[in-house]
Design a protein that fits this description.
With 873 residues, the protein is of the alpha+beta class. Helices cover 40% and strands 16% of the residues. It folds into five domains: 19-30 and 760-872, Jelly Rolls, CATH 2.60.120; 37-68 and 89-101 and 294-410, no CATH class; 102-242, no CATH class; 423-473 and 536-666, no CATH class; 675-754, Immunoglobulins (Immunoglobulin-like, Sandwich), CATH 2.60.40. The longest helix has 22 residues, at 439-460. The chain is globular and about 75 Å long.
Length: 873
């Protein structure tokens, strides 16, 4: 798991209150919030010093905030160019990302009944009235009618407009409409009261969506000229001329976020350097109780201070006044207490922007250089500070490469790989690198891959590698966790990280160095070394070398995702001799016809249609119509994708009925792997899940003799049909591993969601000290609560002779991390022990503590309430 390195102990001081404690207890630390999530945003700019970005990529305007991608498979991809890679990896609050490209349009005809974001009272009630939300609703309006409709729409409705295309895009976002909305924005900005009661947010979001859509659909929308730039700037100037935009409230933060991003969408970053400095300079840890204001601060970091470097006006403005560079560097240096917390993305993004800005001009470089070096020289690569080091070093290495020796980061990918992935095993044409697995533990992985080679060639019946393609050797790095994968892999291998692993290769590039980037799971996933998606990702590599001529764009010029992803899933399960339990469940639903799956693309299919249904289609075709498969592959190997498509498209619907009958047989057990298959049902009642084993053994006289459950909260059971109560509401991964009488094991995971939680320790008496932050011997404090980003500080006095201190947090709602420190107030930046599981069920056990005051705290990752904390010794 990821190494946690506490920062230096906080300076001691006096605590108001009990006179006796005042000389013994350090002053409380007001520590920041934590965590990290990769963002995805790409933006466009109008030329400039860096307009010819490395790899030919220039970021486009930012899309809306969306849910982060699920932890699932991903397609083969070419390495991302630095400009896009840097933007994709910039941090957002946990569980969110920024949309990078337009997505398939949502269903139209939607009726929206949600209140306007930030509205309250009568305004919220008025906004809650149902209002239609279709593209036609916007495209058919102009002037005051359009403005009123936009203001009356929910932000969810406005969010759908980012994906509009074609004639709808032109009708909605033609310049005349943008000018009208920009004028209305200016009018409302003059009386901005720090809330969205007026509907100003929807106007700003409409403008942002317009710039975004026009960048992708310039032909349909038309050009935007200087008159729109002037109108948008007039609205922004009016907004920033007021004072209420500085309110440190969530109501203001919601609006300020989009306004700050709009300065970037309109590509007029040069006009707002002082505004950006004010936002960054005003931030302190008190903001962490106001997450929307934290997001607004982050808006400056991941939008204008990143994308502005492709705008010559911004570059020249920064060169003329480098105080913004100094502000940015000081922010990164002074807020490193955020690292390892839920708001770590602020500091990471600051370091990222500082190094990017160093490459924009000589003046910026001269100011940034000592700040960058100070960050790199005083920041650890491993541990909680890793992401700050990686982002700062990566951008400096890309955009200020002439100073790499000064920074100590020449050949940064090698430096990072050697530090993070020190264990190396060469396995034929594969190089395995691991963070946590030893060389000895990589040996079974090597043998597994050797066997997969043989299995794959026997299955697809190839005649060797496709001629004249590159990449006959492959590197296979394995990170210790999803967090480490997201922190380090992109800067070493140029892969995206919004996935469960990725194969990065381009067989048409003579410099191609294929990589299957993966990480370990914490529960038994039936792969050697618990390497998530090991067999799936390696199949992608083999398929690209032996079956598919050309790069991924060429390969996907026809609807063949059913094969690309389906064969990776089919190989993964069939080679390992494991039942694809999700596919078997889907088979019983009969959701899709085979002819429908044959038309799969990444655009028209969700993960269920791509993966389990792709598996079913490939398996059916291998079992029932192998001649069609080999005919198709012969075309693919020659680069004739239209010919390959014609093979299965020409089948039409003729196999649909037989496929449907075959699905019934599969669901009934005919497609189960030989040996044990772990299956179970779940029933949830409040905080308790009751699990009923229904595992089977197929084509074997063996019987299941052992069951092992992991509940996703750090606990486990070897009962056959256990019940388990969770201390906190949430979604947990329950995994069942079954073993039969021959010693063969297999595992199946499933998500379990409980709406409430309960915990242990409720029989302990309440601690008797008058101070509510004072714990005691074998007692508890109930009803602990904090809003997101705040910390609940407590302490306990241990007498001489104490052998074990057990600290337990249970019950309530939300997510709260538990920290312990033996010398000063415990926080997420000063601790000697921690428990950071999802939810509020946390336990720390300290053995042989010395006598004296000891400190503990609950840090609110999200709002938490109703939590009970107990100390037993």
């Amino acid at each position: 798991m990821r190494l946690r390195i506490p920062l230096p102990v906080l300076t001691a001081g006096l605590l108001a209150g009990c006179a006796t404690a005042a000389t013994l207890l350090p002053a409380p630390a007001f520590a920041a919030t934590g965590g990290r999530s990769e963002a995805a945003a790409a933006a466009t700019a109008s030329g400039g010093q860096n307009a010819a970005a490395p790899g030919g990529a220039v970021p486009k305007p930012l899309g809306p905030i969306v849910d982060a991608a699920p932890d699932t498979h991903t397609s083969v991809a070419a390495p991302l160019p630095p400009a896009l890679l840097g933007q994709v990896q910039m941090g957002q609050p946990a569980g969110t990302a920024v949309q990078t490209t337009p997505r398939p349009a949502a269903k139209q005809g939607l009726t929206v009944k949600s209140a306007k974001a930030g509205a309250s009272g009568a305004a919220a009630a008025a906004a809650a009235a149902a209002q239609s939300c279709t593209y036609g609703d916007f495209g058919s309006r102009s002037g005051a009618s359009l403005v009123d409709f936009v203001k009356g729409s929910s932000t969810t409705c406005i969010g759908t407009l980012y994906n509009v295309t074609g004639t709808d895009a032109g009708a909605i976002f033609k310049q005349a409409n943008m000018l009208t909305v920009a004028g209305a924005f200016k009018t409302l900005a003059a009386s901005y009261d720090g809330t969205n009661n007026s509907g100003i947010l929807q106007l700003v979001q409409f403008l942002r969506a317009g710039y975004y859509v026009q960048s992708y659909n310039a032909g349909a929308v038309g050009s935007y000229d200087s008159s729109l730039t002037a109108a948008t700037k007039a609205g922004l100037d009016t907004y920033f001329a007021g004072t209420r935009w500085k309110d440190v409230t969530d109501a203001n933060g919601i609006v300020l976020y989009d306004v700050l991003v709009l300065t970037d969408s309109a590509n007029i970053q040069a006009s707002y350097l002082n505004t950006y400095k004010q936002v960054l300079g005003s931030y302190n840890n008190s903001y962490n109780a106001t997450p929307k204001m934290v997001n607004a601060v982050n808006a400056v970091l991941f939008a204008p201070l990143w994308r502005g470097n492709w705008n010559p006006d911004f570059v020249n403005a920064v060169a003329a006044d480098t105080s913004l560079v100094t502000t940015l560097g000081n922010f990164a240096l002074n807020h490193r207490d955020l690292m390892g917390t839920a708001n770590a993305f602020l500091d990471v993004n600051a370091g990222n922007d500082l190094s990017r800005m160093a490459g924009a001009s000589t003046a910026a470089e001269n100011t940034a250089k000592p700040l960058i070096k100070q960050i790199l020289d005083t920041t650890q690569i491993l541990g909680a500070t890793g992401s700050l080091y990686v982002h700062t070093a990566f951008q400096a290495n890309q955009y200020d490469a002439g100073q790499c020796s000064y920074y100590g980061i020449c050949d940064l990918p090698t430096k990072l790989a050697d530090t993070v992935l020190p264990n190396v095993l060469v396995c034929d044409n594969r190089t395995l690198r691991a963070q946590a697995l030893t060389v000895a533990q990589l040996q079974p992985v090597c043998e597994h891959l050797r066997g997969e080679d043989t299995y794959f060639h026997a299955m697809v019946k190839d005649n060797g590698p496709v001629p004249n393609q590159y990449g006959k050797t492959v590197t296979m790095p394995v990170f210790a966790s999803a967090t480490d994968y997201q922190t380090y892999s992109w800067a070493i291998y140029n892969n995206s990280t919004d996935n469960g692993g990725q194969t990065v290769m381009d067989v048409t590039d003579p410099n191609n160095k294929p990589v299957c980037v993966m990480y370990q799971k914490s529960w038994n996933d039936d792969f050697p070394g618990n390497i998530w998606n090991l067999t799936h990702e390696y199949t992608h590599y083999l398929d690209n070398i032996y079956d598919m001529k050309g790069n991924f764009t060429t390969e996907t010029s026809v609807p063949d995702i059913w094969w690309i992803e389906g064969v990776a899933e089919y190989e993964s399960y069939s080679y390992r001799g494991v039942t694809d339990t999700q596919a078997m469940t889907e088979a019983g639903k009969h959701t899709y016809k085979l002819s429908t799956i044959f038309q799969n693309t990444y655009g028209n299919s969700d993960s269920t249609r791509v993966y389990p249904w792709g598996y079913l289609a490939v398996r059916y075709m291998f079992e029932k119509h192998p001649a069609d498969v080999y005919n198709m592959l012969n075309h693919f190997r020659a680069g004739d994708y239209q010919g390959g498509y014609a093979v299965y498209n020409g089948v039409g619907t003729s196999y649909d009925a037989d496929f449907d009958a075959w699905l019934t047989q599969c669901n009934a057990g005919a497609c189960f792997a030989t040996g044990p298959t772990a299956l179970f049902d779940q029933a949830v009642n409040g905080p308790t899940v009751t699990l009923t084993d229904r595992s089977v053994v197929t084509n074997s006289p063996a019987q299941i003799t052992a069951w092992h459950w992991t509940f996703g909260d750090g606990t486990s059971s070897d009962e056959r049909n256990p019940s388990h109560s969770y201390a906190a509401a949430g979604t947990y991964t329950v995994a069942l591993t079954v073993t039969d009488s021959t010693g063969r094991s297999t595992a199946t995971p499933s998500s379990v969601t409980v709406a409430s939680g309960t915990g242990t320790g409720t029989t302990l008496p309440t601690c008797t000290d008058q101070r509510t932050d004072a714990m005691g011997q074998n007692c508890q404090r109930t009803g602990r609560a904090r809003t997101a980003g705040n910390t609940d500080y407590m302490y306990v006095y241990l007498p001489a002779g104490t052998t074990t201190l057990k600290i337990t947090a249970t019950g309530g709602t939300g997510t709260a991390y538990l920290y312990y420190n033996d010398s000063t107030w415990a926080s997420q930046s000063a601790f000697t022990a921690s428990s950071t599981l999802s939810g509020t069920a946390q336990t720390i056990t300290v053995t042989n503590p010395t006598a004296g005051y000891r400190y503990l705290s609950l840090y609110a990752v999200t709002d938490f309430s109703g939590v009970t904390v107990s100390t037993q010794f």
